Amino acid sequence: MAANEAGDDSLYPIAVLIDELRNEDVQLRLNSIKKLSTIALALGVERTRSELIPFLTDTIYDEDEVLLALAEQLGGFTPLVGGSEFVHCLLPPLESLATVEETVVRDKAVDSLRNISKQHSQQDLENHFVPLVKRLAGGDWFTSRTSACGLFSVCYPRVSSSVKAELRQHFRNLCGDDTPMVRRAAASKLGEFAKVVEIEHVKSDLIPLFTNLASDEQVYNDSVRLLAVESSVAIASLLPQEDIENLVMPTIRQAAEDKSWRVRYMVADKFTDLQKAVGPEITKNDLVLAFQSLLKDCEGEVRAAASNKIKEFCQTLGPDSREWIIMTHILPCVKDLVSDPNQHVKSALASVIMGLSPIVGKENTIEHLLPLFLTQLKDECPEVRLNIISNLDCVNEVIGIRQLSQSLLPAIVELAEDTKWRVRLAIIEYMPLLAGQLGVEFFDEKLNPLCMNWLIDHVYAIREAATMNLKKLVEKFGTEWAQTAIIPKVLALSRDPNYLHRMTTLFCINVLADVCGADLSSKLMLPVVLTMANDNVANVRFNVAKTLQKLVPMFEESTVLQGQVKPCLEKLKDDQDVDVRFFAQEALLVGVNLVVCP
């Protein structure tokens, strides 16, 4: 009796989960669906097949989030129904899910069907899976027909020739469907299907479908045509050169000049993939002119997409004609794009233009590319300037640091000393990146003076940014470099006649202490801070108190706290200025807590 009660107790949570599958509360049903594998394990494979799966098939009419969870769960259910021998019993609920109105549910059901198709034997595939594909492909509602498009490629390779012919016919029907959504789904899966179809049938059956989809007559519904462009890459990679020229290139030329900018954008976005698929000869004869056309397109989005591909396109060109094509056909377009009115185009170009230097060589870089780099370095758009500075190492490797410093450095210095403080601020933000690109020796010689001058700029935002800049530079170059190149110059400002510059010393110490560590802070920085406690200006004195409050937690030795920091703060606590007294008291409280609670 006790044993029976124990058994009932162990099954009770399962009974609760099963009841929750019928519950009116959506969240409870969702929680139960997410634990379906637990229910199936408790029921065993036979009851799962005979009871749970039919029950789930009957409850397909539910909230979308519940159906989405169900579609995901069923994809991993094969072991729970008895393995690959019985995997076909999962098809009915997934077939129903593949026909629902909500797109994400259908897509997840198709993913799960694709997964379990691999676990079908050839016989089960023909007896159970292929009939499901045919039913979906011939369904009354477009939802089932769109779902069918994603299933052809997973079952086609493993079925007999006669079944393959039927599948090709069904796919042909979907590509010519009256509903644009179905044609769109077919266009998106055409390339995937082509990869598993025999080459002779690709030419006889799929190429005509590709041509029709790429010239879909609905001018205002361009989504079918742009998805056909994606398929062109897969189809071109399957065909020999002469067939590409005759069967694929006319469609690509047509797409590159399509009335819809979205189709042209897709061509630009997939251009280098197309280039690799068709090979260097067709690229030289056909694609170069198409690429030029896209770089000069009337739509900014198309020009930006094409600009992003310039470096990769040039790298992939055949070595025998690469330089001639770049200098004759690509560079004139690049020169126009540098002053493009659309900032996204200029930004896209700036992210890749530096990569042309290793391709065209030193002489062409100096003569043709450096002037373009200078133009973009002075561009009003921050992202354009950042993209140029981020890729300086590409040019440095080709023309050398000397030539780079003679050409680009004056422009950087000019920006660093610009009368507009926001321009100066932008260059400060790029300085750690620039330092990393050019190395410590070059930085010390050419750029360090700029960084120190920013510390005494008349605009507070510049001084603040320059302080943070020093911290990033120390993180990049190390504390040994900081000891010789940065800290002495910062500490020298503590004796500057201008109290704002003296305060900058304290601000620098606040941020440098974190990266320099307790040892350097106590030896080099703390004595200067303590000396500044006697400053004539109250603002300096209360910032001394704030700096000491920042430094106190770093000093574990009570001798430093008790012998140097605490006497200074005690003195400031009795200062005539109310703010100095307040911050000194705050710092003392931190020190007391550290001593009491080490």
* Overall geometric form: flat
Tell me about the biggest sheet?
none
Tally of helical runs: 35
Write down how many β-strands occur, each being a DSSP E stretch of 2 or more residues. Answer: 0
β-sheet strand percentage: under 5%
Please compute the radius of gyration using only Cα atoms. Answer: 35 Å
Distance between the termini: 63 Å
- Uncertain residue ranges: 1-13, 594-598
Quick check: average pLDDT?
82
Helix-and-strand structural type = mainly alpha
State the helicity in percent bands.
over 70%
Distinctive features:
disordered N terminus; mainly alpha; disordered C terminus; 598 residues; 35 helices; 0% strand; flat
Notes on the protein architecture:
With 598 residues, the protein is mainly alpha-helical. Helix content is 78%, strand content 0%. The protein contains 35 helices and no strands. The protein has helices at residues 2-20, 26-34, 36-58, 64-74, 91-97, 103-117, 122-137, 142-149, 152-155, 161-175, 180-194, 199-214, 223-238, 241-256, 261-269, 271-278, 280-295, 300-308, 310-316, 322-338, 343-353, 357-360, 362-377, 382-390, 392-407, 409-416, 421-438, 440-454, 460-477, 479-485, 487-492, 499-532, 538-551, 558-573, 578-596. The longest helix is centred in the C-terminal third of the chain and has 34 residues, at 499-532. The relative contact order is 0.03. Mean pLDDT is 82; it is low at 1-13 and 594-598.
